[in-house]
Design brief:
Residues 1-53 are annotated as: Disordered. Residues 1-15, 22-43 have a biased composition (Low complexity). This protein has helices spanning 23-30, 50-71, 74-98. The protein is mainly α. α2 runs antiparallel to α3. The longest helix is centred in the last third of the chain and has 25 residues, at 74-98. The protein is elongated.
């Protein structure tokens, strides 16, 4: 009589649920480059004209005036605020004239 060998027992493998993707993995997937590269033509910026540079200077002056008003004591605020308003009006007038 042939003695049949006992069948090998299947290895017990614990079935683990798949781990959800980590936040880092999701961020990497979100920032992965798109499959189609964008065909955007990047043109070098035109050098700013004198008018544009003047506008930028007017806005910088107006922003500096705002910062000055915020730093002033209450006694100086009214006069500083008037200068601030004048600076912004000059900047806006310059923008309207350049448009």
């Amino acid at each position: 009589a042939a003695a049949s060998a006992p069948a090998p027992e299947p290895a017990t493998v614990e079935a683990k649920p798949p781990e959800p993707p980590s936040a880092e993995a999701e961020a990497a997937a979100a920032s992965a480059p798109a499959s189609e590269p964008a065909a955007a033509v990047i043109e070098p910026p035109e050098p700013p004209s004198a008018e544009v540079e003047e506008q930028v200077e007017l806005y910088k002056a107006a922003q500096a005036a705002v910062a000055h008003v915020e730093a002033c004591s209450s006694a100086e605020k009214a006069a500083a605020w008037a200068r601030c308003e004048q600076a912004w009006e000059a900047a806006l007038r310059g923008q309207a004239a350049g448009a």
